[in-house]
DNA sequence: GCAATGTGCTTCGGATTCGAAGCAACTGGA
DNA sequence: TCCAGTTGCTTCGAATCCGAAGCACATTGC
């Protein structure tokens, strides 16, 4: 029942602004901590964390890009940067010659371990401090639903790359 | 009671990821709509919207920077861009010679009005669609508290520009 | 096997961001 | 008034991001 009125009511506006502002403020703070603690950008941290989560410590580029929200080209850039620093390795997959498997290295894990405590502290102090346990549960639930919905709905360009023949000139 | 354990429990992690992902997805979608409908970046839209909200249609640069979350230099860049397009004017304040007053123009208001309906639609379809009214209220409350807390807590560098004399060398 | 299409990743150019440093105007105290 | 410190904004350089275009491998249909 999305009636789509031409404006938002005060509550909706408040939720929208609060979401944008809170995530911006949090992201800025976290970025600063990551930069100081391990010279990582936020994306780089997300990539390392995602890889560290994987049982094998590795993922395909495309799966990484989906997990994080960034563009393919941006991912390439950051993966190269991380590779230069020796925090990940990139090897062509054996199945698909064009697919690249990214794997976190020991040093990558070390850097990750180095920044993690500070990361957790920041989250606790900035995001969770003013919230009760029940608030946090509610937040996870509501935003989780919103995220799942947005992931399903065609997020980027409605039609990824279809170019059905272009019907001549 | 910030016990700051060395890791987060599943609920906290879920809330954190959901917040980051939901805001990222939403922001990307909105950015695309704004670009298509009025060739505006997200910051530019926020600036115009903030100015449009003001009774006088104008604000000082610093107040704008505080309202949005961006850096002063980034604000300067965007304000110049908007001025080139004739969507805002920038005039030195009469009180403070160094202060700049930014004012939205008629054309700025027109562009704002042009992108607004689509903006509202995106929000409705992506963010609010899967949420009940009570969800939205709760979200506004919780994230509002988090935002206020983060705004108070030294967000950027712990000490903005204090260089209290530097106790000479 | 070969051509047409699809998929995975990178390169390219341009836009946007930030922090540090710099300039100019204001403020308070001697 | 004059000086030191503060505040408002801009410039500068570097980093990061994206989308479009391009390249190479894979897959399908014939």
From TrEMBL, chains A, B:
Q: Which keywords does the record carry?
A: DNA-binding
- Source domain of life: Bacteria
Molecular function via GO? DNA binding; DNA-binding transcription factor activity
Give the residue ranges for region: Disordered: 146-169
Q: Name one GO biological process term.
A: response to stress
SMART domains in alphabetical order: HTH_MARR (SM00347)
Q: Where is the HTH marR-type domain?
A: 12-148
Put simply, this protein is called DNA-binding MarR family transcriptional regulator
Species name = Kribbella pratensis
């Amino acid at each position: 029942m999305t009636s789509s009125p031409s404006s938002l009511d005060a509550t909706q506006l408040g939720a929208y602004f609060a979401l944008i502002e809170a995530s911006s403020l949090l992201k800025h703070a976290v970025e600063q901590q990551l930069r100081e603690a391990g010279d990582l950008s936020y994306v780089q941290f997300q990539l390392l964390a995602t890889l560290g989560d994987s049982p094998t410590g590795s993922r395909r580029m495309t799966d990484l890009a989906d997990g994080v929200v960034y563009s393919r080209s941006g991912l390439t850039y950051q993966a190269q940067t991380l590779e230069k620093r020796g925090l990940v390795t990139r090897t062509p997959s054996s199945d698909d010659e064009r697919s690249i498997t990214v794997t976190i290295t020991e040093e990558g894990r070390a850097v990750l371990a180095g920044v993690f405590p500070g990361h957790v502290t920041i989250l606790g102090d900035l995001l969770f401090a003013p919230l009760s346990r029940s608030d946090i549960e509610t937040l996870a639930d509501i935003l989780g639903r919103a995220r799942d919905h947005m992931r399903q709905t065609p997020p980027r360009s409605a039609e990824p790359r279809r170019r059905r023949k272009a019907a001549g000139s």
